Structures are given as structure tokens and as C-alpha cells.
Amino acid sequence: MSGGLISEVAAGLVVPRPEGWEQLDAPADSVVLAHPPVPEGHFRPNLVLRRSESDSVSLPRLSTAALAGTLVLPGTHIISNELWHQQLDPQGALVEGRQQRFVRVAEGQVVCVDRWLFSDCGGSLEATASYALEQHAGMRPLFEDMVFQMRRAAPVAAAPAAAAPAAAGAPASPAGPEPRLDQAASRLLQTAAEDLAPLRAEQRHRVSGQIIGPESLSLLLSMANRDALGRFDAAGAGESAAQLQALGVLDGRRLTPSGREFVQPLRGLQAQFTVSAVGPDGSTGMDAWLGAGSALVAAGPSASGLQSTVMPSGSCELLCIDAAALPVFLAKWLPLVPAWTAGQYPLRLSGDLFERRLNGGSNVEAPVGLGEAEARMWAQPWVGWNVEHVHSGRKLGWVTAGDAGPFLATADPRNGGVALEPEPAAAVWDTLVNFILAAAQGAFDPR
Hints:
By secondary structure, the chain is an alpha+beta fold. Helix content is about 25%, strand content about 35%.
């Protein structure tokens, strides 16, 4: 974007607008700013600002209603719900709000949505930014800067304006009782923090692909450069070939159109990833091959569902998805979901203690002198996981600690152990998206 940001006054707000962007027609209580027109088939990024002038609604209730309204949208995964503070009134104090992030897969598009919510005596204010996953690197920081510079232009009027039509992902009515709070997080963050545990439980991974055995997967991968099995291959892998036939991948010895879709990423391979996860219930993992605009995924049981999985031992979930949907599948599989992080970190552990805690659960004795936040994190169920780009060997690792959220895991140069630092789920998502897109574009190729 050239020319910086231009201030627009609309709906009682001073709204920054990049040069060349358009303000579209909208109801009186709304502002819609849209990216310059894009070619057909591409997503047009936009920012929708909506103001509701009503009785005061608590921020936890407004936030919970917004999350509940989003959760019912098909193809949607909520990634984060974080504290957000900014100065809405000129020369005014900082106002507490919420920044929520979710992603939708619909009509062949993977759309990322960032939403900011504010509630005060004048009603509520919502800003919703939407952009395609491929636009993530440029649009996400731009929208964040636009919202952060937004200010009220005048006191909120007493009479409500005409109601705006509900936008996709708009919050449900915040009517009803106050939501349950996360008492520990509220105390640590020194604010009323809504309980996010039900949201995490609702977003557990659900198997949607084909279930395939290890031998059948190996046979499928061996067809990366051929359309049919040889006679000796078919004779020596009868059960595996039969399973591929039952799944509609083979017709006799030849690949079906569905089978060719599965091997297409292998034939145009741009990047391969492995994901490993371990916790007290065991270990699991997934492999992903990305190429030719799609991704082949072979995933074991989700790390959050090892005890309840009905997947046969050694089998995996096989599916072919759009390349842009790979980060979304990973976020659901892990799962990457909203949680409150707080405390004085990093938590530094010796390599031996880290391994024992990861594999032995919270019954492993905690280090002496932990603060309240660190003790809370220690008591949560841990899942350690990493994502590796196979060709370059580049690897990123985290620990997800239940209610305490994700923690970036890095080598600690002080003692040769591991340092764990809290990283909001939205930041983990940003890192994963950038890592996968960069690898697919060849940024990690050592040649």
C-alpha cells in the first residue's frame, strides 16, 4: 500500500483508510472499507465497523455471545480470544476489548477473520476484518493498524441508528445471564475473563477423511509416478490394493479420478511436513505433502483425542484438501483453540525434567518456587508438538497446556534444557501460516 492511511469520518468514528480503498454503501451505524477491486476468483479484503447504541453490556457477555454466534457457522474454526487495549476517545484512557480470530472454509475460499469488540456505557463497537489466507502476510498487520488508529469522532448519540444486517460471523444477541468466568485467569489477568473451556471442548477434532492402514498408505505413496500397479505389485499387496479399491482410489490396478487427486500433490511436490505430538496418553503424528494447489494429509489420532479415538492402531485419516486449507486442518487437529495465558515466564526446565513432565503428566513434581501462573500451567494437561519442513529440516515446537494455552518451546542456552514462553494462539497461527506458505514458496530450499 502506498500513500499511507487517510482519515475518514463516518458513523461517529475517525476511521483510517488506505489510499485507493473504497468506502461502500452501508447502514448509518456501519462503515465498510474495501480493498480496491480484485480479479474474479480472488477474495476482496474488507473491514466492517458496526456500532450498537444500547444499554451497557459487559465485555465477557459480549465476547461470549460473539464466540457462540461464530461457532455455529459451518466450516468455521475459532483460533483465539485475546485481551486488547486501545484509546478510543481522543485524550481518553485505554479501553479494554477483545480481539478474536477465526477461519472459515467456504465456497472454495479459506477466509481469515479478525474481530475486535468493545463495550462501554454507550453500547458496543465491533470491527471485523476479512481476508484470504494467501493475503495473510500483508492484510493482517494492515487491518490491525487500522483498528488501532480508529477513534470516536464525537460522543455517542442517544437515539439508536437503524440496525445493520447481521454480517457473517456477527455476534449473537448478548441478551441473557452473565457468562461463567475463568476464576484463575481473571485473578491473574486482573480483569473479568470469560471461561473458554466449553469452546475448546466443542472444537475437538472430528475425523472427516478416509481411514487407511499403513501398508495401504505406503502402496498409495508408491504410485506418485505411475497410474497403475504392476502385476507383481498387485499380487504382493493384495490386501492393501483391496483396501484402496474399497476406498475408490483404485479400479482394479489403475488409479481412479479420485486416486489421481490423492497423488497430485506428490507429483507436483512443493513442500512436505511432518507433525509429531506427545503427551501422557501417548504419541501421534501426521504427514502432509503440498503441491499443485492441493495437500495430501495422512493424520493419526488428534493429540486431544488419543483416549477416545476409534481409529485402528497404526491407521490414519487420509484426505486431499486445498493447499490453503492445510493450516486450518492442522489447527483443528492439534487443536489450536482460545485460552488465557498469564504470568512471569519463561519457565526454564532441564531436558530430563521436561521429558518426564511431558510423558508423565502433572503428577511429576513441580520445580520449587513456581508463581501462581506457572503452577497453574504445570497442573494442566500438556501436549508437546512440533512441525518440521522435511526438505530443510527446519522445525518449530510448542507445548499446549490446557487452560493455560500454548507455549513456544526453545532450547535454553543457560542449562541446555528447554525454555517455555507463553504465546497467544493467534501468534501461533501466524507462525504456522507463515512457515507453511514460506516452505511452499521454496524459501527454505538450501540450494
